Amino acid sequence: MPFRPSPTTRRQLDWLNDRFGTDQTIITVAIDRMYREETMNTETAARQRVSATPELAVYEDIIFYDWPNWDEHLEWVATAPVAEIADWAKAIREDEAQA
Question: Are 49 and 56 in contact (CB under 8 A)?
């Protein structure tokens, strides 16, 4: 489906095009900013949850380690049951102690 902006939006896009580049560039930047904002909101929610939950706060270093599946991990930390996250982090801590 083609993108058909209203006349007002078209004028705004033309103004942005004159200063910053093509419609595609503007759309790409907008999507990137929305994604970044969404990730920041999820990360903020996850960090607030961990710091406010004593069972999780003790594992903050493990929970916020630089995991390869970072976005999914943050979503899990923000929404999973506390006991599930705590059990996972405890198992990692125990594995570290045995290594």
Answer: yes
